[in-house]
Amino acid sequence: MAAPKTPITLPDYQQERIGSQIAEGEKIKSARPHALTDAIFNYCPGCTHGIVNRLVAECIDELGIEGKTVGIAPVGCSVMCYDFFNCDMIEAAHGRAPAVATGVKRVHPDNVVFAYQGDGDLASIGTAETVHAATRGEKITVIFINNAIYGMTGGQMAPTSLPNQVTQTSPYGRDVSKVGYPVRIAELLSTLDGVAYVERVTCDSRAHILQAKKAIKKAFQNQIDGVGYSLVEVVATCPTNWGMTPQDAFQWLRDNMLPYYPLGVYKDVTADGFANAAEAALERAKDCPIAQQGRGE
Amino acid sequence: MAENARVLMKGNEVLAEAAMRAGCRFFFGYPITPQTELAAYMAKKLPLIGGTFLQAESEIAAINMVYGAAAAGARVMTSSSSPGVSLKGEGVSYMAGADVPGVIVNVERGGPGLGGIQPSQSDYFQATRALGHGDFYMPVLAPSTVQEMADLIYLAFDLADQYRTPAMILADGMIGQMMEPVELPPERDASALPEKPWATTGTKMQREHNVVNSLYLSPEKLEDTNRERFARYAEIRETQQRQELMMCDDAEIVVVAFGAASRIARTAVRDARAKGIKAGLLRPITLWPYPTKAIDQVIENGAKQFLSVELNMGQMVEDVRLAANGRADVSFYGRTGGVLPTPEEVLEQIEKLAAGEAPNASARATVMGSVLPQPIDRKSSYERGE
Ligand SMILES: Cc1ncc(C[n+]2csc(CCOP(=O)(O)OP(=O)(O)O)c2C)c(N)n1
Ligand code: SF4
Ligand SMILES: [Mg+2]
């Protein structure tokens, strides 16, 4: 992958780190993003968490925001991303990352605050925190890894597991007549007034990875510009708990996940011509007098 | 409000006003009786001084907002009452595990379950032992007057920062709702608040990243962090015990009571003295650390019996017995469910003890744990015709 486009000045301790690894006269062809630490990812081979961690770090580098970014790690396979990202990090309880992010952002509105969460974390135990942070229009960025399974605990049914999908706790396949249907988070959140931007992406190909990066970058840029709550849902794989090779997992993702979770932009207030989520919300409530109070002041 | 002037205020509002004077600029909470006035006061005043009041979607979210704001270095608090405090347990455990300071107010009501809305002290165990999973404690301060609402929440913020721990104000609906004259503490100088170099405020590319975390997958590492924390707890136990002693110099019967119960016990002890009984009052102000040194002292002074008076079925009495450690008899008297005992009821217990009689039978049963189990009636109350 390409080195960061925007040159960044490295602090001394980073210079030393990189300097010691490069022989004299050698050129850096593919630098590790500065926003990643030296720690080695603990994800399974072929896991998409690694790709997305790196994309987030590249965006942080390119936007030059590492020094003011605070990340919130979830409970799930990416729990230890507090060791991977070079920015300040907080480890939250299972599902509570949006509330923790809210606390940080309210104290330091000029910081860039992001939450990185899996589907069990964001769409099951943390649904209330997710929906309310979104509807409050918290100016945070959420990266949502939808791999249709509870990876960390060994492959249980997730809120996003597909109908008939076999998991450890749906051994006969997800029976929607008994346990109901998967949650489509991008669609759900796009109905909320506080939300500025929601896009669903994936990372099964070079083109899709580039699109994912574009979306993540926009979700950060929106926060920098004060546009409102932004979430990027990444349709992801868990080869280990799906019981597949990484290649087969991507094929399964294309065959089954993408038809259920269509890629695309679900809400984008700036593309709709609004400066931010608040303006779009006012317009949507244009026939409600009390909601219009103070408009245009 | 002019400093050092006494004003008439409601307990819950004083908690809010004194918290702001202690430098608290962030409040996250969810509505519940009987702490309502505290949140309402914050909602009104915080925005006027550049602070943030946010009504969260639940107590779970509120405490996690506190965790985030505290991790980001702010003086921050939340308040609730018993059922809501149960929901905060998870977040408080994470705060303790990540060494993040913050203040939690519990204006207790009766329980368990939805319980009632009248004053109670039935969350003593929860506050001093088990507000959340894991090996941890936190300072718990118990005001008994509106003045102490101000003084102790002011102190709670300092203790929280000094020891990097959550700290709790354990009040009850009676002190929360009552009005008394109070001298408010002075406004803290924001620039003189403790520095928090560990906070997640952004590296500004000037330092290694800060991580606020409670996960340690290596057992040895986790044991180390717990030991380090318990070294701090030992220091807190050594230096932060607080209590009030009344008429304890020569007391043979010492009534132990905190918060609202201590107000009733105080009258009963005075009445007992008037009757010639050598009674005294030990009022714990810190419930954790428990004032064990004061218990030692009154035993040295000649106390033969302790009577723990509580608004519950007997919780703090266990700490009294642990502290007395067999050196004196310990008994209990309490009312629960929001019922307040009268001073006469308490006096009657003191008189029984003075006469060498067992105090009220059911109370004694909870203390001695020696009553034979009742035969179980397997018929339903319907079958029994109740
Ligand atoms: C309160 C609580 N309940 C349950 C768990 C156990 N647990 C850890 S990770 C996890 C599921 C994570 O799944 P997901 O969010 O989809 O993340 P993934 O591992 O798939 O990336 C669960 C249930 C926990 N740590 N805390
Ligand atoms: S269990 Fe699944 S989600 Fe977790 S690291 Fe392995 S492949 Fe990734
Ligand atoms: Mg998952």
What does this structure look like?
The complex is a heterodimer of chains A (297) and B (386). By secondary structure, chain A is an alpha/beta fold. Chain A has a single domain, classed as Thiamin diphosphate (ThDP)-binding fold, Pyr/PP domains (Rossmann fold, 3-Layer(aba) Sandwich). Chain A contains 13 helices and 7 strands. In chain A, strands 2-1-3-4-6-5-7 form a 7-stranded mixed β-sheet, with helices on both faces. Chain A is globular. The N terminus of chain A is likely disordered. Chain B has 386 residues and is of the alpha/beta class. Chain B contains 13 helices and 15 strands. In chain B, helix 1 packs across helix 2. The longest helix of chain B has 21 residues. The C terminus of chain B is likely disordered. Chains A and B meet through strand 1, strand 2, helix 4 and helix 6 of A and helix 3, helix 4 and strand 9 of B. Strand 2 of chain A pairs parallel with strand 9 of chain B, so a sheet runs across the interface. The structure holds thiamine diphosphate (TPP), iron/sulfur cluster (SF4) and magnesium ion. Iron/sulfur cluster binds next to helix 10 of chain A.
Mind telling me which CATH architecture of the largest domain in chain B this is?
Answer: 3-Layer(aba) Sandwich
Q: Outline of chain A, from the CA principal axes? A: globular
In this entry the ligands are: thiamine diphosphate, iron/sulfur cluster, magnesium ion
Give me the Rg of chain A, rounded: 20 Å
Helix content of chain A: 25-40%
Average pLDDT over all residues of chain A:
92
CATH homologous superfamily title of chain A? Thiamin diphosphate (ThDP)-binding fold, Pyr/PP domains
Short description:
The complex is a heterodimer of chains A (297) and B (386). Chain A is of the alpha/beta class and 297 residues long. Chain A contains 13 helices and seven strands.
